[in-house]
Amino acid sequence: MNTPWWKQAVVYQIYPRSFMDSNGDGIGDLRGITSRLDYLKKLGIDVIWLSPIYQSPNDDNGYDISDYRAIMTEFGTMEDFDELLAKAHEKGLKIVMDLVVNHTSDEHRWFAESRKGGEGPYRDYYIWRDGKEDGGLPNNWGACFGGPAWQFDQERGQYYLHLFSKKQPDLNWDHPAVRDDVFDMMNWWCEKGIDGFRMDVISMISKTKDMPDGEVKGLYGDYSPYCVHGPKVHDYLREMNRKVLSKYDLMTVGETAGVTPKDACLYAGADRGELNMVFQFEHVDVHGAYGKWNEKRMPLPQLKEILSRWQTELSGKAWNSLFWDNHDQPRAVSRFGDDRAPYRVLSAKALATCLHMMQGTPYIYQGEELGMTNYPFRGPEDFQDIESLHAYEEWCESGRVSHERFWPCIAAVSRDNARTPMQWDETDQAGFTKGTPWMPVNPNYKEINARAELADPDSVFYHYQKLIALRKQYPVIVHGTYRLLLPDSEELFVYERILGEEKLLVVCSFADHETEFQVPGEFVLGTCLISNYRDRPEKGVLRAYEAVVLHRQPGL
Ligand code: TEU
Ligand code: CA
């Protein structure tokens, strides 16, 4: 069997604005990334996923694109990009681009033309509707970043749909010219030699024709039944596959909030001719009284149930993507582990072990490999992110909930936790910039930084390096089937991977104290492939956040 490269790869996500600044303006850029390729090579990853680097007014940090064929001025030039791609390829690293085509910026030329209305060629590029007879909005839908999903445009005299901010109008995928333009643009990037696409909210590109009011959840009506996994989404992805993806050797991953394993088999089923894999979000979705804004931890049995269900239900049908965090999520060690000494390093390694031994393609978000933590935000004045700022306004400033109650909730999950600068060394601004960074550096940078970790053989960095190397060495990690043990344990995440005679036992403690655990007999003589303690589990006991992988040789 010929295994495609993306099934054996480990991906590293870069949020360019916060990765490395090369010219002292406080904003990360492409030359900054190029200057750090050797660091990524040392970590051992295969693929870089670049969050958007295209021309953008940055209402949503590049997820609002005004020109798909130009580089964001602050990030550099197309020559800088070509150099990054060439150098990455020289080192054997691939580059996957972020494809944001559910919406554009309202400053995109297509939108400027479309809002003119009339009979022009761009008239139907976006989703325009008249108001209700009483002059009200076309329906009650709320946008992801606060407020209604409709914005009135004076020039055109109609409302346009925006599922995100009002500076991110949704494209009308039902219009064939829109699809042709998007596919042309994708082909243009493929011809440059890029290695794939991460597709932003790709599950939302097809909307129902009717757009009735949605069930009111919180302040507005819910658009999901009409806009998520819409009627033609699979037709459009197959068309994309025919006209673009199938012509190149690419890796594709769709961002598909709200998918079930069954949906995932449609988007990424081996025989479907759509995508290679999708991101699901069940394990990072915890809802409370204020929607996603809460400090609650998912109970371990539930977390295990979710991840295990994805492992088994996709088995042999579709391929999983594996992640704890990304640029929209708080820091993994703060959310799922314990970011206080002495547990930060141990729990960061335990989380890594637990995820990287599963079946699927692992994604590492920049700084995760150092065990970077959430930021100690003092108040909303510290936020930059459009989602956090709007949520604070909508929940708190409106008087719905007090600052005292709401603050810990939003501070715990704000996307800005992931967006503070990468911590390279112990010098000013953590070596990220010689100027003033666009987001403040986490004050813990003197302790947590790449230089310190590279000098410490027991660091989180080297643990990731080892996990990545193991994946390349043991086919059971890539291909083995998955079996969860101890589903009800509230402290331990334990599973097996099995490939023929070969078997792995993965044991990870999510507790800050000792827990009873007997290594099953067949693994007692097995080799220890990796551990976050110096020695194997003591008899019958697992230490705080202990994580260990045991390998049973064939024939034993
Ligand atoms: O995110 C889409 C998405 O599902 C959002 O709901 C996101 O998870 C948000 O943080 C939820 O609270 C993608 C991008 O990853 C995000 O950065 C963009 O802001 C968004 O699309 C719009 O392009
Ligand atoms: Ca810069």
DSSP strand content: 15-25%
Ligand inventory reads:
1-O-alpha-D-glucopyranosyl-D-fructose, calcium ion
Low-confidence stretches: none
Q: How many β strands by DSSP?
A: 22
Major beta sheet, strand line-up: 1-2-5-9-12-13-14-15
Largest beta-sheet details? 8 strands, parallel, barrel
Enumerate how many helices there are, as a single number. 17
Radius of gyration: 24 Å
Structural class, by secondary structure, is alpha/beta
Overall body shape: globular
* Relative helix content: 25-40%
Task: Give the end-to-end Cα distance, rounded to a whole number of Å.
Answer: 26 Å
Mean pLDDT: 97
TL;DR of this structure?
The chain is α/β, with parallel strands linked by helices and 556 residues long. Helix content is 28%, strand content 17%. A hairpin with a 2-residue loop joins strand 10 (216-217) and strand 11 (220-221).
Task: Provide a descriptive summary of the structure in words.
The chain is of the alpha/beta class and 556 residues long. Helices cover 28% and strands 17% of the residues. The protein has 17 helices and 22 strands. It has helices at 30-35, 37-43, 78-90, 109-114, 176-192, 224-227, 233-243, 261-268, 300-314, 332-335, 343-356, 386-397, 403-413, 450-454, 460-473, 475-479, 521-524, and strands spanning 11-14, 47-50, 54-55, 67-71, 94-99, 128-129, 150-153, 158-161, 196-199, 216-217, 220-221, 251-255, 277-279, 319-322, 361-365, 481-485, 492-499, 502-509, 515-516, 527-531, 541-542, 547-552. The strands form six sheets. An eight-stranded parallel beta barrel has the order 1-2-5-9-12-13-14-15. Strands 16-17-18-22-20 form a five-stranded antiparallel sheet. The chain is globular. The mean pLDDT is 97. Calcium ion is lined by residues 21-23, 25, 27, 29.
